[in-house]
What does this fold into?
Amino acid sequence: ALMFVYLRSPVPIYGTLWVLFIAYLTRYMPFGMQYAHGSMRQISDEMEEAAESAGASWWQMFRKVTLPLIMPGFLSGWVFIFLVSFRELGASILLYSSGNEVLSIVIWQLWENGGQGGLAALGVLMIAVMVTMVVVVHRLGARVGVGGAD
It folds into this structure.
């Protein structure tokens, strides 16, 4: 279905990185929406009404009340989507072309061709990038008011 949709697109995106980006977006957007929806449902209207009655403008209300409350859901959703899409192979293997391979495709090609040394090195690099990203997002979350950082 992915190839059918993207091959018949009026804009010639097949064979570019854009087709992979759009495929990841359409595949993982429901997960991100689920995290965001869970965060936004937890905010009661009374919180915003209290800030408004205290004289806060819309921007102050958003920045001081709403954003710190929804940030944990957005950050955890972003981290989840990043980690899952970083290792995604199904859509990538259908839509990649020569010259725009993503890391999971390169790792798969090394595995197919028996390049265990390069495969191990790329696997370690992939894990290092993912761990670094999780640590950076965790510290960013602590900076904007999300608890849990040491």
The chain has one domain: 2-9+17-143. The two ends are 46 Å apart (CA to CA). The mean pLDDT is 81.
